[in-house]
Amino acid sequence: MHYLSIKSFALPALATAAILFSPAGFASTISNVVYQNTSRPDTLEDGVSGVHSQFRSSGSVGPVITNGNTVSVTSTTQWVGGYRVAAAGFAHLLFIYPSLSLSFTVDDPFNLGYSLDASSLTRGYLSAIHESGSDFSLAITAAGTNFGVSFDSGSGPVSIGPLATFGDSIAANSTTTSVNQLVNTSRAANLGTFSGTRNFSLVLSWEPSPAGTIVFQNAEVGQAAIRFGMSSTLDPLTLSKYPGADGEAASDHGNFLTVTATFNESTEAVPEPATSALLGAGLVAMGFAARRRGRA
User: Fold this and answer.
1) Rounded Cα–Cα distance for residues 145 and 167 (Å)
2) Looking at the DSSP assignment, which residues form a beta bridge with residue 103?
3) Beta carbons within 8 Å of 185's beta carbon, 6+ residues apart
4) Would you say residue 26 has pLDDT above 70?
5) Do 133 and 174 contact (CB within 8 A), yes or no?
6) Does residue 116 carry a pLDDT above 70?
7) Domain residue spans in the chain?
8) Triad 109, 114, 120: Cα angle to 5°
């Protein structure tokens, strides 16, 4: 009677090492991402002389996402500005300046090249309510404007067009007592083509333009709001809270800035040369072991 003999032998250490990929095998990516919310500091005025006002902002950056030969990263900046006047009097103004900066490194160690693009989506609401006062057509006004853009390609500033806007202006008065206007704007720009590993920075700012201005004219009572993903903490600022009259989620509002690098090579992991040599040696060792089993 013949019995099948099963011999066990350890996979050679070289073969074991050969199946590991070094992190350096990921040749092309975006790294060293740093986001900063550079908006003016939060402000609060609660009930002094019948005035309530507030500005708040926050921001964050998401993970680096790889899809084929493209790598992207998205930052989110959200803010709210609100103003309510409870008694007629002199003109009131609130200036808000939401701003952000995004710096990052594009890794291209083999100098095969890539195209760099930026896209921006800004979504939120401008709102105003006229409670009492004159018939002036611009009695209570909320307004927005374009981002100013500063882009540094690693070799100095590069001029590009505006990448975001949060609306023009709205007004409530004795005829149109309530306004809630959607702002939903998209902008995109090609930042250039490059090769090699480089550091970049992109700054979006409304300052020093009079952006985000909320204006109350003389002898008016009411409130206005610029609402882009955050709620006021003051109860009288009802227009500056979520959910608003539109019922949209706060997470859908704000500025969403995406930077995308499209590489002229695959971004998939590949073995380093030294690792490839180990892989070959491991396969040879496994081949000799198989031949020995066949002769046994």
Assistant:
1) 6
2) 34, 201
3) 121, 122, 123, 164, 165, 166, 167
4) no
5) yes
6) yes
7) 42-272
8) 125
Please report, in angstroms and rounded to a whole number, the separation of the first and last CA atoms in the chain.
17
Q: 12 preceded by cis ω (within 30°)?
A: no
Measured CA angle at 88 (ends 87, 90), to 5 deg: 120
Q: DSSP readout, 240-278?
A: GSSS-TT---GGG-EEEEEEEEEESS--S----HHHHHH
CA atoms within 13 A on the CB side of 131: 12
What number is the average pLDDT over the span 144-173? 77
pLDDT at 2 over 60: no
Question: Which amino acid makes up residue 84?
Answer: R
Contacts of 102 (CB under 8 A, 6+ apart): 33, 34, 35, 36, 61, 73, 75, 201, 202, 203, 257, 259
- Mean pLDDT computed over 102-125: 94
135 and 92 Cβ atoms separated by less than 8 Å: no
At 261-275, the pLDDT tens digits run 999 976 555 554 444
User: Most confidently modeled of 40-49, 62-71, 181-190?
Assistant: 62-71
Write the CB contacts of 127 (distance below 8 Å, at least 6 apart in sequence).
142, 170, 179, 180, 181, 224, 225, 227, 239, 244, 245
Q: Which of 71, 127, 151, 94 is nearest to 253 (CA)?
A: 127
Q: In Å, how far are 56, 126, 140, 252, 287 from 136, measured between CA atoms?
A: 30, 19, 9, 34, 90
More confident residue, 78 or 289: 78
Q: Which residue has the tokens 């609401």?
A: 125
pLDDT at 278 over 50: no
